[in-house]
Write a structure and sequence with these properties.
It is built from ten helices and eleven strands. The chain starts with 6 loop residues before the first strand and ends in an 11-residue tail after the last helix. A hairpin with a 5-residue loop joins strand 2 and strand 3. It folds into two domains: 307 residues, Alkaline Phosphatase, subunit A, CATH 3.40.720; 47 residues, no CATH class. Helix 7 packs parallel to helix 8. By secondary structure, the protein is of the alpha/beta class. The relative contact order is 0.22.
């Protein structure tokens, strides 16, 4: 029997995704006025309804929309949004728009799920680095770079030699009297990593699928997530990213390639989970640190403010949530869409309605919750 605890998959669109070329207000003449160079032609827009459409390179997303499994959250961000990638992403990760945060929102979630650290793979991130969203003191995170069957320490060393090396490593980082907090932290991290390797490397052995994933970096990450989720390891937070959506130049070529990879990867991922009867307890969140400037720059778009977030899942109540901020020049903020849905509202709905946690201590406040979950 598959696990039934609610899980979250986060797909980070790194670099600042162009909201207006992702969810297109195709009947609004101000869209055409502001996008002479990078606007999506009418014959390349798939209509969601009488107001909004998506570019045809995002066609798989239309399937989720038609199934009623795709929520579009408009105007997401926060007031006085910075145009810095690093600061903006840090705010999304820590829910601290005023000061620099030290704990990631999903790190806090993991701590709530497993306060005694009984499962070192409660959180798994697909990538070589640790996103700040997952950082929290005492919370282990398994970071997987590459195929799962290659994951771990010294994957090319096998047999007794490998065991000898791992035993020596474990001894080197084992707790010792008189050491300081830095070495204690390294010891804890190393031993958690060793435990996590033993668990995660079992996932590919339990996995078999008829679904063919595209040969793209994001599709490979999503396939890894499917393997972990379908292995019923108790993993409840799964994270990955795709980049770079920082389309200052060459957007007409770059943005389609980025979204084609994401859309096709998600299509394969959801089909895979459904084939394994493991889709019902998963919600997928897609976000980017900010949107792009309303008027293009002749080749691309520069850093903006208000953006769009997507939530996909079997228990999602599909539709539009919130409204696209006005494109009228007098309503823009420094040439950008004025955010009208705090990103912590999106988090709060997921935390409260899906993960069954009190959102306030995790997102640092109380925020209105768009009702995109059944």
């Amino acid at each position: 029997m598959p696990a039934t605890e609610p899980c979250i998959v986060v797909l980070q669109l790194t670099g600042g995704n162009d909201y207006l070329n992702t969810v297109i207000p195709y009947n609004n003449p101000l869209y055409r006025d502001n996008r002479p160079a990078v606007g999506i032609p009418d014959n390349n827009i798939i209509h969601l309804d009488q107001t909004y459409g998506i570019p045809d390179y995002m066609a798989p997303m239309k399937k989720f929309w038609d199934e009623g499994k795709l929520a579009v959250c408009h105007g997401v961000g926060w007031k006085e949004s910075p145009r810095s990638h690093f600061r903006a992403m840090d705010i999304w990760h820590t829910c601290e728009p005023i000061k620099v945060g030290t704990e990631g929102w999903l790190g806090r979630v993991a701590r709530e799920f497993d306060p005694n650290k009984q499962n070192v793979v409660t959180t798994v991130s697909m990538g070589p680095s640790l996103p700040r969203a997952l950082v929290c003191p005492g919370v282990p995170v398994a970071c997987v770079s590459g195929p799962l069957d290659k994951y771990g320490f010294l994957p090319t060393v096998q047999g007794n030699q490998r065991q000898q090396v791992l035993n020596r490593f474990a001894q080197m980082y084992s707790p010792a009297i008189g050491r300081g907090p830095v070495m204690d932290y390294l010891s804890e991290t190393a031993t958690d990593s060793l435990k996590g390797e033993d668990i995660i490397k079992e996932a590919p052995k339990k996995y078999s699928s008829t679904v063919e994933y595209p040969n793209t970096p994001i599709a490979r990450k999503l396939r890894n997530i499917a393997q972990v989720h379908c292995a019923d390891l108790g993993t409840r937070i799964m994270y990955c990213d795709h980049s770079t959506f920082d389309t200052h130049a060459g957007q007409a070529q770059g943005h389609p390639a980025l979204w084609k990879a994401v859309s096709e990867g998600l299509d394969a991922f959801v089909r895979d989970l459904r084939e394994h009867n493991h889709a019902d307890n998963v919600v997928i969140l897609l976000f980017s640190e900010f949107g792009r400037r309303v008027h293009d720059n002749g080749s691309g778009t520069d850093h903006g403010a208000g953006g769009v977030a997507f939530v996909i899942g079997e228990k999602v109540k599909g539709g539009h949530y919130g409204e696209m901020p006005s494109l009228e020049a007098s309503k823009l903020v420094q040439g950008d869409l004025d955010p009208n849905m705090d990103f912590r509202s999106v988090y709060s709905t997921i935390l409260d309605k899906w993960l069954k946690l009190n959102p306030a201590p995790i997102v640092n406040g109380t925020f209105e919750q768009p009702a995109f979950l059944n």
